[in-house]
Amino acid sequence: MIALIDMDLVCFRCAASAESDDLGIAIYRMNELLDQILEKTGATAFHAYLTGEDNFRKQIYPEYKANRTQPKPVHLEACRHYAIKEMNAEAEYGLEADDLLGINQTEDTIICSLDKDLLQIPGKHFQWAINGNGWSKDDTFIEQDEADANYHFYKQCLMGDPSDNIKGIPKIGPKTAEKMLAGIFAEQDLFDTVRKAYNNDEEFLKNARCLWILRSDRKDYLEKFNKLAGITTHKILRPETKWEGNPIDLGKDWDEDRIDVIGQNGNIGYTDADIQEQV
């Protein structure tokens, strides 16, 4: 089993926990948490992923994550550098860590993260134990099949994601979304229900493309939308020009759980300028 590590969250949580301590404390906690994850999952190897510079979702929706204005932990940048240099963490231009986790998920991997958004990715998931003031959550193992993953995604489309500044449909929260999708299992039926609720394809597509996490085929949600909507003229995205640069330079767009780091594998960012009509 190979553990796929959400290194954005590992770095952020360990840096935040050492806000009043030396950098060495944050780095010690990074290594400790990684060791615990590997032990609990029984993984024999791991791949760690960070978010790359120039998130393609900001080309779709410029206000994506624009609400993230809180100061970042003082050791966060140094933890990112450490993850790349000492833990071989990978980042890719234009993509979030979530995308790299989704792209690399297989039958032989387990995604290790606290981010519930990732439950739209089929396969094995591990959420490590956390606690706060008067509450705690134990280690959790989840196995998502295709139907569960699709349900999670379309439920998100209805609700939106306030933490990412994605509005969803007004007045629809988790309970209303669950009622609307109750008893619906086929993806076509889920899509039709959500599309009807939006009554606005442009808004639905914008939100869905921002919420969709890339899979092994690296396809944007736009192609799936066109297929499910019965549109025969497809808009597709093509990769941007290959980027050359220093793989450990940190990017400019920081947010609290997806800190942008320039990619080292080169280049699959997407922009609306790259959309072209093909029959």
How would you summarize what this structure contains?
This protein has ten helices and eleven strands. By secondary structure, the chain is α/β, with parallel strands linked by helices. The chain has a five-stranded mixed beta sheet, with helices on both faces.
Helices, strands, pairings?
Layout: E1 2-6, H1 7-17, H2 23-41, E2 45-49, E3 51-52, H3 57-60, H4 76-86, H5 97-104, E4 109-112, E5 123-127, E6 130-132, E7 135-137, E8 140-144, H6 146-159, H7 174-181, H8 187-198, H9 201-211, H10 221-229, E9 234-236, E10 260-261, E11 276-278
Parallel strand pairs: 1-2, 1-4, 3-10, 4-5
Antiparallel strand pairs: 5-8, 6-7, 9-11
Helix pairs in contact: 1-2, 1-4, 6-7, 6-8, 6-9
Q: What's the total count of β strands?
A: 11
Spatially, the strands of the biggest sheet line up as: 2-1-4-5-8
Mean pLDDT, to the nearest integer, reads: 86
Determine the structural class based on helices, strands and strand pairing. Answer: alpha/beta
> CA-to-CA gap between the ends?
42 Å
Radius of gyration: 19 Å
Task: Estimate nothing, just give the exact number of structural domains.
Answer: 1
The top-level CATH class is: Alpha Beta
